[in-house]
Amino acid sequence: MNKVIGQAIPKLDALPIATGKPVYTEDLTPPNALTVKILRSPHAFARIVAIDTTKAKALSGVACVLTYQDVPNIRFTLAGQSYPEPSPYDRLILDPIVRYVGDAVAIIAATDETTALKAMELIEVHYEVYEPVLDFEQAMNHSSVVHPEPDLFCNYDIGMNKERNIVCTHKIEVGDVEAELKNCDVMVENTYYTQAQSHAMMETYRAVSYLDHAGRLVVISSTQIPFHVRRQLARALNLPASRIRVIKPRIGGGFGGKQTGAVEAFAAIVTLNTGKPAKIVYDRQETFSTTTSRHAMRLTVRLGADREGYIRAIDIAGLSDTGAYGEHAPTTFAVVGDKTLPLYNKTRAVRFHGHVVYTNKMPAGALRGYGATQGTFALESAVNQLAAKLNMDPTEIRLKNLIREGETCLTYRGKKLGSSALDRCIARGKELIGWNEKYPRQEINGKIKAVGMAVTMQGSGIAGIDTASVEIRLQDDGCYTLLTGSTDMGTGSDTILAQMAAEALATTVENVIVNAADTDVSPYDPGSYASSTTYVTGMATVQAAADLKQKMICLAAELLATTPGKIDFDGKRFRDEASAKEMTLAKLAELSVLGTGKLQLVGNATYGSPISPPPFVAGFAEVEVDPETGKVDLLRYVAAVDCGTVINPNLARVQAEGGIVQGIGLALFEDVRYDAKGVMQTNSFMQYKIPCRKDVGEIQVVFEESYEPTGPYGAKSLGEVVINTPAPAIAHAIYNAVGVWITRLPATPEKVFFGMRQGGISKMRTEDYDAGR
Amino acid sequence: MQIECVINDQKTVLEANAGELLADTLRARGLLSVRKGCDTACCGLCTVWIDGKPTLSCAVPVFRAQGKHITTIEGVSEEAAAFARLLAAEGAEQCGFCSPGFIMTVLAMKRELKNPTEADIVHYLTGNLCRCTGYMGQMRAVKKYLGVAS
């Protein structure tokens, strides 16, 4: 039995990327590439009345200056989603209407950055300024319409009402929620606000473009979605997709940000206009203020239970802020309900409903967690509040209500949960954090220590939509080349896929070359997002390896003059035990490509899953709160994770730790803020704080493996689910410390302090003993 | 303007514009390990050594390099690879984009601090941000590298 699965193998690209080798987008810029810069709107909402580029164009070194008059008048979406995308086609490369501070007004290309910036200053723009929609809670009744254009287009009926700034309307209800809530002994109701969060990946957005030897457009981009980018560019630039090649090199982090095509069209249109190579590299300010963030949401949860603590009804009413454009608007919103309502299956009715609205702020987009993070904060906070109201241990109320392996729930409509170790995750996490000794709080020297917890689920890929193809080729020397369009962005997914192929082919990862993410070469893959690569592309890999193995065995049988059923393959040799005839893999490889009448052996598979099995996490926070100042220090975080089989323990552990720290940032520090005119105030790391080493305490990740029957070697996803628990678990710990429910993230010292002033602790004691209505 | 300095043990004359920042000059000379992540001297990605001290090259006007010894990760490749192997063994390089600056800081710390505590290590490395790893795996690698018990 080969043992590649479960091994902590270092990443295939580890040494070169760690030691600074030139393998990222900007490093691959062709010589003499033009530098591309974008003139941006100073207004949150305006129409360009006149734009004069004469002086800018006349400047020596300027290659081109493009305005809305110079781009195709075809609307598209930058959302990285499988066609036909559910996101509205509400963008132009440049639009005469600008919809947020930072929206693109003109594209400038020059021989160097200094010249491009000088040219930018020479462009004269006259705007007719409109009243912007800045408060998403006022968007539906606002006199301004963010998208008045008649040619905005949706592939589906998503419940758009653009005259009221409604991008989409969503409702899922099973059972009669209002009736069930009336029957409940206990109810909690609260409104939660989750903020816009920035991805803050270390490599900012960037792309390089040029025309190749055949005159085709080549775009090298730091992207999670090369095939979607090719399709976006084809539409936006009005080119056949066959004229475009998109290459993903190494990526310096994505977190969903690079699931939206931020910069590619700007470089590409310059190359098409000038015939010259072009490069666009966003600085940190542009990355913060002109790309995308997490959707800010308002979520009102009503939770009903009986006296024994069985949750009978869940109602979540949502409002989501998509900003100026609707990338990922309907889908992030649907995920709020999809990845929370199945958790508690003793329910008799569940509902999630609401709207996503346009505002005149930077667009929202995909960010790790993708709605589940927002939903988890709201629902888990409400469950913790319910436990307090019932005077139940919060871990017990979970164990009483959780969906278990083999069970179904209202929204699954009869389908059964294939794998779950969440009950074991809760038990293990409880033990590691010292729950029984520490819950709810201890007071030491004027400071209060307390613990809190939350659970969560995500999915593994998008069921029935996202489909990956993989090819594995037997090379002439007996090694394998695995071709995939999935996009390792630092997660190590190329290595994970190599491990799966090596396991299936009874070889080592050194014998598997991974060629990834070039639309001219790779088989189709939607890209790495939606927690899909290990599960969806992984299954395609396992199946392609099995296909190749079968073909190799058939060829070996033919060459050894025996039958395939008699051949045993141990990774190096094909052997027919009965006749003692054998052939090495290297020999078979040689014979498969040399001479006449041969066919090089290639294993193929295309895989899309009808289900999206959830990974689970039970997260436990221990905080220290200073009752004098409201300052919260995170001391420890324990996450017990069920991602099915762990393919690579080290990569899994680090990915989980990283996700938890991003969740800690969401819980305590991170907040994209605007001033009264819609100018982003948090456009640098000076104003937008991401956690540093001193902010995160000690993080402990443990895996409680389940076995997902539909997954590759029993694996499920991991990448997103790990970001979801810190916010509700830390908010819960704060409540246990000082009696303040943080309902509006992040949990800053001010909010905790003023919460205490409004009677936090005394309020808590009343609620603690108020078991039932 | 012309600046005479030593880059990775080689005497060099840099041609640069006044006001140019060292990070950009080094990149333009093909030292592509030097990266900028923030423009506000917050992230640590552009860390190089100036006369042996870890320094943010995005905040150093290039004329300040006059007469100095500049070291990038390309100049300490074996030492860097030795630590990078420990980092990789933890899976803690992840996207790798912050790694060169981080490694330059770790190597400088090893020279500078004797028997550091975990708090000393955290303090020394705080200026190097990482968005992928959550820092724990980096700490495991650093402890192994320094021979500090975990």
Largest sheet of chain B: 5 strands, mixed
Strand order of the largest sheet of chain B: 2-1-5-3-4
What is the CA-based Rg of chain A, rounded?
Answer: 27 Å
- Residue stretches of chain B low in confidence (pLDDT < 50, at least 5 long) are none
Count of the separate structural domains of chain B: 2
Q: How would you sum up the global shape of chain B? A: elongated
Q: Which oligomeric form is depicted?
A: heterodimer
CATH superfamily of the largest domain in chain A: Aldehyde oxidase/xanthine dehydrogenase, molybdopterin binding domain
Strand order of the largest sheet of chain A: 3-5-1-12-9-10-11
Average residue pLDDT of chain B: 96
Task: Give the helix/strand layout.
The complex is a heterodimer of chains A (773) and B (150).
Chain A (H helix, E strand, L loop, with lengths): L13 H5 L15 E7 L5 E7 L1 H5 L3 E5 L30 E2 L5 E7 L2 H9 L2 E6 L36 E9 L2 H7 L2 E9 L11 E6 L5 E5 L4 H12 L6 E4 L16 H11 L3 E4 L2 H6 L6 E10 L5 E13 L5 H10 L10 E10 L13 H19 L3 H8 L20 H12 L1 H4 L2 E4 L2 E11 L9 E8 L5 E5 L8 H12 L7 E5 L16 H27 L7 E3 L3 E4 L4 E4 H9 L8 E7 L7 E10 L6 E11 L6 H20 L29 E6 L22 H13 L10 H9 L2 H10 L4
Parallel strand pairs in A: 1-12, 10-11, 14-15, 19-20, 26-27
Antiparallel strand pairs in A: 1-5, 2-4, 2-6, 3-5, 7-15, 8-13, 9-10, 9-12, 13-14, 16-17, 17-25, 18-19, 18-24, 21-22, 22-23, 25-26
Chain B lengths: L1 E6 L2 E6 L6 H7 L18 E4 L2 E4 L12 E3 L5 H13 L9 H14 L5 H8 L10 H11 L4
Parallel strand pairs in B: 1-5
Antiparallel strand pairs in B: 1-2, 3-4, 3-5
